[in-house]
Amino acid sequence: MNGSDRLMEENAALVALLRTIDAEHDTWSSVANRVARNGSASTVLAHEMDPANNPLVEDGNRTEPDDEPSLFDEAEIPPTDLRRMQLSHALDDARREVAEWRDQGLDFVSVLDDRYPNRLREVADMPPFLFADGTMVQDELGVSVVGSREASGEALRFARDTASMLVSIDFSVIAGLATGIDTAAHRQALAEDGRTVAFIGTGITRQYPRENEALQREIARRGLVFSQFWPQQGPSKHTFPMRNASMSGYGVATVIVEAGEYSGTRIQARQAQRHGRPVILRDTVATGTHWGRELIDRPGVYVASSVDEVHDILLKLLHLGSDLELAISRLIHMEPVG
Prior knowledge:
Blueprint: H1 3-19, H2 28-38, H3 41-49, H4 81-103, E1 107-110, H5 118-121, E2 129-134, E3 142-147, H6 153-168, E4 172-175, H7 181-191, E5 196-199, H8 213-222, E6 224-227, H9 239-250, E7 253-258, H10 265-275, E8 279-282, H11 283-288, H12 290-295, E9 301-304, H13 307-319, H14 324-332
Parallel strand pairs: 3-4, 3-7, 4-5, 5-6, 7-8, 8-9
Antiparallel strand pairs: 1-2, 2-6
Helix pairs in contact: 1-3, 1-4, 6-7, 6-13, 9-10, 13-14
């Protein structure tokens, strides 16, 4: 079996695991981490079907620091014939599904693919796969520019000016293709021939909101669109927080331009802080929301009243070490607050 066929088989095993996930004990991220730790979805699937003869090393958070790695507890409990049959059928279906995606020109990038973004591998809630439409750039320096869908004119100007500044220093502009702040940032980056990356809250074959369909195609042509959902997944209340977490993990920092007390944007601010990624709050967000005020004094959280200050904060991060990556690494290994 050549490398391409081997990856196809591994991707099929990953899809089979996700299609048959035990929601009481696992999440997509826990499956992604288990597969990544073992370097093989096929190995994890074999363990699910016959744990006694296919042991896995347990993850570190279930052992004491000085303990030797242990096997999964369920290794002592053989799966039922029904469960084994379910997994076997799921693998057959997944092989067909992965082949169909390839034939349709859909680019499925799993955690077992060398192209999978390295920064996303660093976060505990990494998605098990991404569908990519556009040109992938490993380890690119990108900053998320996010905020309200119903943004004020002043906030839209701030978003556009922030995108312009990022393009001028060769940073990619990351956003979520939502109306308002996200759209303004994406469009400005494209207008200045910069690179922009969109994390969407639907499947890669869907467009949401509908008015951004042409913009999504343009970003795919000139930049990159990512989706962490099944191709036909529609928008839902849980997909957007999940894509916000991935945006945080993919970029090196997040700029919150405008957000209300209950805005979904606050999820990305909190996720970025948990990820150890710098968060730059516009001063109106820092003082005008309860959650913004709570974040102000936390490590890696900055407040800016102007785009020039955003620029200076990024330069400050650059100067913390030989490059921004060292600064991010230091923040990642800080003890989280709260």
